[in-house]
# Entry
Amino acid sequence: MKAVVTGGAGFIGSHLCDHLVARGDQVTVLDDLSTGSLANLSYARRAPGFRFVEGDILDRQLVDSLVREADAVFHLAAAVGVYNIVDNPLRSLRTNLHGTENVVEAAVAYGVPYMVASTSEVYGKNDADGLHENADRVYGPATKSRWSYAAAKGLDELVAYVHGLESGVPCVITRFFNVVGPRQTGRYGMVVPRFVDQALSGEPITVYGTGTQRRCFGSVFDVVPALLRLMDTPEAYNQAVNLGGHEEVSIKGLADRVVELTGSRSPISFIDYEEAYGEGYEDMQRRYPDTSLAARLIGYRPERDLNDIIRSIVEHRDAADPLPQPV
Ligand code: UDP
# Structure
């Protein structure tokens, strides 16, 4: 099969490429290397038929020319990371809105099945005990920068869904809940790689707010194989599917766990949100996934707990350190 992976040099995209080449697919990556890196593709790039194209998903002609040759498109390119969204609001909005429109419209025009990566951010401040796919979206005011990402991703889903519905071209929407693992960078805000880097370098661990906010981290090693299975499952077409982990932890609890597992002497330092992200930032207090739909569709059952996740990040922190390859 010929697969196009947008954002294939990024964290989740590069793990997906590893799986695709391991099963013998010919993979073309489209990535502008804004937050991803070629180092992430050091395994996939060795495969026959692998092609890397440096470019922007806003380049409609380029997107068209790659998608028309493909048998499947995995759309993971996006502006990601809280710092990135807050620092570059217009650029992020354009990439996440029009970039997705370009990819989906090309996929539909050429009849190519497509997957669009979305996020648990679409649920906003809904802190229900187990967010199922039909849970309400609860957003703060449009003037607060964080919500522009949630709003854009929500529209991406609609673009994917309505096109899929009207054209009959297979479409899967995946909502990632705090997916973490090796290759994720802390540069743009993601908390787990930041805490691991801080712990290993002996710097203070920066907990924002009170640290009582809770998250449920999912392993990239559990989530990525699910993407391939969902694309092969007709019952999943035109659905949004939650993917993530099962172990919930407070951010202060995460800091303690990272310190314990790394044997670090780093102190924990509490920092105001304003100092961390600038004025007007709003955080979510809780976000816990209901993954029963994925379980029903493809037997999804996350196997890695938080300790496994932290250990795998510590173990493969050096980019030159090869990851275990998918079989
Ligand atoms: N966070 C933190 N310290 C950091 C980076 C993030 O305490 O150095 C917090 C952040 O405010 C949020 C949680 O960790 O409450 C998860 O942040 P991340 O950006 O990884 O994911 P998201 O907010 O999208 O769930």
About this structure: The domain at 2-179+218-244+288-302 is CATH 3.40.50.720 (Rossmann fold). The chain is about 40% helix and 15% strand. The radius of gyration is 19 Å.
